Amino acid sequence: MPVGGPEAEQPAPVPAPDPASGPASVPAPDPASGPAPIPLPLHRAPEVAPGVAARRPAARRGPADPVKSLMHRHRELCERAVDPLEIAAGLEAHGLTDRTASRYRHRDVFSLAEELYARVPGIVRAPDAPPPPRPGRDTEARAGWTLLALLPGAACLATVGLLRVTEGVLGGGARSAVTVAGALLVLLGLRASLRRGPLRAESRPIGAATVYGCWLLGYAMYGEGLLAQVMSGGPDGGWAGDLAPLLGLALAVAPAAWCAHLFSVHAHRKLAGSRALEEFGAAVRPVLLGTVALFLGALLVLLSLAGLAYGGGVPVAATALGVLLFLSRLLAVHGFPEPATTGLAAACAVEAAAPALILAGRLPGLDSLARPVDALIAAAGTGAVPTLACGAAALGLLIHAAVALSRASAHAAARVDTK
């Protein structure tokens, strides 16, 4: 059959030479002898199932620079930090300890933070942007928040003085109006003092803490009178409030602000001089206890003066309440508002349960409910209930503060005056 006809077989394609095997040694074709035979491969590749990749041994190798992976993981923290202390506090907040810092070839978190701070450049600020605040002496700021801290005590002192001067002159309605106006001024001054200075909390405030604080202050004025009325078979009619605890607590806002300021200053100094987290924790706990003792001494003096103005002694319940409020605010300032609110709520629950149990004990068959409260009041008076409630809550917050405030993450973010 002629070549090129419809039934002619097409020649098979010649496979391309394998570049890995080098140039093939094929003899040149002879034009006279016809087409050259196609060489067959000497070895055939093994069949591989479709979709199955060839398995290769995985290379086991760890990171040559473990700090680099940590730097990328916490890059935002390192960029916004103004010093290595903030990086150390952030790493501690993420669960990194001195023991785990050895995985990154460092003896402690502080040396690891210094390397991270040196490696990661900070955020480039605009030329006209103000520099980040640094610890330093700021007399104007101190004077500002000190004056604000004096406002609650000044408003309460003015209200008490006005009530004393107008005693027997103003009627019951006018005196009540003066008392309400004075209480509003005290609350406004307290709110202003808590928004600036060492008592200002950066975290979002919890609304329940405000309610619990108002309850405790109201109970300090009227709680013992209410218990006396309930114990005598009442309540019958009204009863006068005790302004001495409120006056002493309002005057103690200024010492509380200065004690909180001193605690932050000394804690920041301990943090700057420490080289390990355990070392910082052991150094800051005595500072905390000394701060609480200093505030307690100032509170006792102010409550004694307020008690002398009203012809009474030192109210122990008001002292326990003052320490409770101070510790709760100190925890909130350093980023622990939830435990502070829990402590206030526990004290409120005990104070509310006391008259409720006495009233419930009057029902038939439930007299056993009132026996613990009756025994406590019979042994130590009506002031024993708020003393027990606030004292136990304050002790619990002090134990929690000794643990929480001994962490670097509770202090390094705050810029304080260290001079």
Can you walk me through this structure?
The chain crosses the membrane at residues 143-165, 177-194, 206-223, 243-265, 286-308, 314-332, 344-363, 375-399. The protein has 419 residues and is an all-alpha fold. Among the domains are: 66-119, no CATH class; 205-410, no CATH class. Helices cover 59% and strands 0% of the residues. Helix 5 (139-165) packs antiparallel against helix 8. The N and C termini lie far apart (111 Å).
Quick structural summary:
This protein has 419 residues and is mainly α. Among the domains are: 54 residues, no CATH class; 206 residues, no CATH class. The protein contains 14 helices and no strands.
* Total DSSP E strands: 0
Q: State the end-to-end CA separation.
A: 111 Å
Uncertain regions: pLDDT < 50 for 5+ in a row?
Answer: 1-12, 19-26, 40-62, 122-136, 415-419
Q: Give Rg in angstroms.
A: 39 Å
H/E topology pattern: HHHHHHHHHHHHHH
The average pLDDT is 76
Give a quick account of the main beta sheet: strands, pairing sense, barrel closure: none
Helix content: 55-70%
